[in-house]
Amino acid sequence: MSAMNVVLAAGGTAGHIEPALNLADALLTANPQTTITVIGSTRGLESALVPARGYRLQTLAAVPMPRRPTLDLLALPARLHATRKQAIMMLRECDADVVVGFGGYAALPTYLAARSSKVPLIIHEANAKAGLANRVGARWASEVLCTVPGTITGSIRMGLPLRPAIIELDRAERRNEARAFFGIPDHARVLLAFGGSQGAVNLNQALAQALPDLTDAGNWVLHSFGGRNAPPAPRAQYVASAYIDRMDLAYAAADLAICRSGAMTCAELSAVGLPAIYVPLPIGNGEQAHNAQPIVTAGGGLMVRDEELSGTVIAQHAVPLLADPMQLAAMGHAAASIGDRQAGREFAAVVERVAHESRRK
Fold first, then answer.
1. CA distance 98 to 3
2. Does residue 245 share a domain with residue 182?
3. Is the dihedral of CA 123, 348, 284, 82 positive or negative?
């Protein structure tokens, strides 16, 4: 295979950055001669996440897309023009063969730069409702890929690239090891609660209320509460951490999860077959509820609206489920039936094809 220069446009949130970095890993596995550059913003998590994974990061000034008509719209063209010019220089410096965009603050200027520079563009939309940058860039992209079919007209279905630790995870095989890692007995029934890398205040508060019912019923709770939140009160059968960096082991240790429903969370839980109670974050264009709906429809999880969440609701759902291993097994099988562990490899093949087709023109 020949060398290939790939630019990944992603930034702002882990939901944009993580799949981009997972694709980078898959590209290098498929072709070690590939050179990866990530173009992100100056204000997102990419400044920490990208270098930590060993990839080169170039940054643009953030250009947030207003969700509704405001005075910020008047300044948008000038901001886009300036950052597009900066992105054009970056693409030239990288000698980019292809740009792959996942959305985020730096996405649209990079998409516009790719168009101006005649560099092929591939867009991936992870959420069930597309963001503005991806909707605009899709108009001239060579390929438009979406996790949920039909999110963007004319798109091709492509799951989210996942980390090797998730792709290779056998929950049953690693259960005892995972529980030992967290100090949980082998025989325990375990609820995993997490709200993403920053935690989720509403979920944390409801879980705290539910803990007596959960633990009195004999269950253990493994909880990632988020570094910005106050640590919970210690309790028997309750294991808490501000951040769990071994989510593969957390998934293996758990029988059931309660969590938000970001695209990456839904992709990972369905891939490993872990049933979940999804509590969509009620912001943006409602994409989190749409992300979880296919899993819920398949029988792989339940959905609770954020405004309806309480300790009582958690206990009403989680306690009987944790006491019913046959129901949990059926839900896990249903979730796994729509999970996708091969998306990274398939995505990398699309990127290589588009880059090579462009070179032959």
1. 12
2. yes
3. negative
